[in-house]
């Protein structure tokens, strides 16, 4: 697994997993037509990394082939002290440690290249696979949030991971 910038050449793989209803079940995004997805990929290829207040999506790619397996979104807060993560992985790539490796690599990037002191992620309380993954990586649940998702009431959990000072 490697993290890399998204490119226009990723369109077919990006659309394949982004149009899989099971992959998108707990995601805040919805599938887009090809033209919109292509514009998004081109935008993510060009924007600077880790600009405060702006989301950046990085591709999660197969090390050997470079084929896109998923993506990870990173949003550095406006004050630079916090970063939020969100991640998506194609169903065929799940359960093999790829998401864990991608998140750990992204954490290293954020803590290595920004002043962020904390990273957080929010997930629907019903998304047990995501909760298990976050807890395996050492994140701790810090908040219960009553909210609405796709027009229905739900509970989300906020997980945080603090920078480890050496």
UniProtKB/TrEMBL annotation:
Q: Which Pfam families match?
A: Acetyltransf_3
Q: Which InterPro entries match?
A: Acyl_CoA_acyltransferase, GNAT_dom, N-acetyltransferase
Q: Which domain of life is it from?
A: Bacteria
What positions does the domain N-acetyltransferase occupy?
1-162
Spell out the Gene3D superfamilies in the cross-references. Answer: 3.40.630.30
Matching SUPFAM superfamilies: Acyl-CoA N-acyltransferases (Nat)
What name does this protein carry? GNAT family N-acetyltransferase
């Amino acid at each position: 697994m490697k993290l890399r910038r998204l490119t226009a050449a990723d369109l077919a793989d990006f659309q394949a997993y982004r149009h899989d209803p099971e992959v998108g079940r707990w995601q805040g995004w919805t599938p887009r037509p090809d033209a919109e997805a292509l514009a998004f990929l081109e935008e993510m290829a060009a924007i600077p990394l880790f600009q405060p207040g702006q989301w950046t999506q990085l591709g999660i790619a197969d090390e050997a082939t470079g084929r896109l397996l998923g993506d990870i979104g990173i949003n550095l807060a406006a004050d630079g002290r916090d970063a939020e993560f969100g991640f998506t992985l194609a169903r065929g790539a799940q359960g093999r440690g790829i998401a864990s490796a991608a998140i750990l690599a992204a954490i290293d990037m954020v803590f290595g290249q920004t002043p962020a002191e904390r990273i957080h992620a929010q997930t629907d309380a019903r998304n047990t696979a995501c909760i298990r993954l976050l807890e395996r990586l050492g994140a701790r649940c810090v908040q219960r949030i009553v909210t609405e998702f796709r027009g229905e009431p739900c509970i989300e959990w906020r997980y945080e991971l603090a920078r480890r000072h050496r």
